[in-house]
Amino acid sequence: MNEITLDRPISASGRKLQRRGEESRRKILDATLVLIARLGLHGVTHRAIAAEAGVPLSLTTYFFSGMNDLIGQAFDHFVQVAAPDNGALRHQLSEYLDGFSAEQLLHDPAIRQQVCAHVTSLLADFVQDQTASQSVGLAVGLNFMTQYRLDPPLRAKVVSYRASLVAGITELAGRVGSAQPETDASLVLGVIHRVQFECINLPTAKPENLLQAEIGRMLALVFRLV
Fold first, then answer.
1. What is the DSSP-derived secondary structure letter of residue 203?
2. Range of the domain at 105
3. CATH code (residue 138)
4. Of 74, 96, 155, 226, which one has the fewest beta carbons inside 10 Å?
5. How far is CA 60 from the centre of its chain?
6. Do 60 and 158 sit in the same domain of this protein?
7. In the chain, how many domains are there?
């Protein structure tokens, strides 16, 4: 008896269709994020997404079971795009702290002042760079993080994403002697999000010295310098 197998190789035409499908799906996710940045979560419609993506309206329901599913997968897409930048910043901060001993970070006043100033500068530069080159991504992230009416599965994803951001800051806060690392991390993240909101919404750019002053004040509390 001949052996029956269901794992047949995909033909060249099949692979081409598969690539086209993935491209269309990616366009829909990208368009959804652009519209969320422009209109907010509750201003997004299937028709608007199709028009922005340049795809047939039917594809917005072919690839996704409904609007909640589409928005949820768009958030997953956003996290994948944002993760490298967030990871790079965390690595840069951690690598900088590795240049000092635990004794210096915890007990040397001059070193602690120096580290606080440097971390302030890194965070301010990060916010300014994102504002200049990734304003859509910032707007998308803030929409998800501040929206109070979320579908429960999406809310769980957003809470998990925020927790991952807080965890990264918590680790760094603990290394510099914060008495309450997780609380301080949550406060620092809140300040960063507020500054990001102002940077993409105010009619004029926030002056660099004011940006650094606000972030620096928050970090000075974490470092127990005030």
1. S
2. 84-223
3. 1.10.357.10
4. 226
5. 24
6. no
7. 2
The answer to whether 36 and 67 are in contact (CB under 8 A) is: no
Please give the chain's pLDDT, 226 residues, in tens.
454 444 555 555 555 556 778 999 999 999 999 999 999 998 899 999 999 999 999 999 999 999 999 999 999 999 998 888 888 999 999 999 999 999 999 999 999 999 999 999 999 999 888 888 888 888 999 999 888 788 899 999 999 999 999 999 999 999 999 999 999 999 999 999 888 888 888 767 778 888 899 999 999 999 988 7
Choose one of 46, 81, 116: the last residue of a domain: 81
Is residue 6, in this structure, part of any structural domain at all? no
Under DSSP, the state recorded for 129 is: H
* Look-up of token digits 């429960």: 152
159 residue type, one letter: V
| Positive/negative CA dihedral, 164, 170, 175, 176 | positive
Q: Do 154 and 193 fall within a single domain?
A: yes
Whole-model pTM: value is 0.83
Neighbours of 108 (CB within 10 A): 14
CA-CA distance, 23 to 41, in Å (whole number)?
A: 23
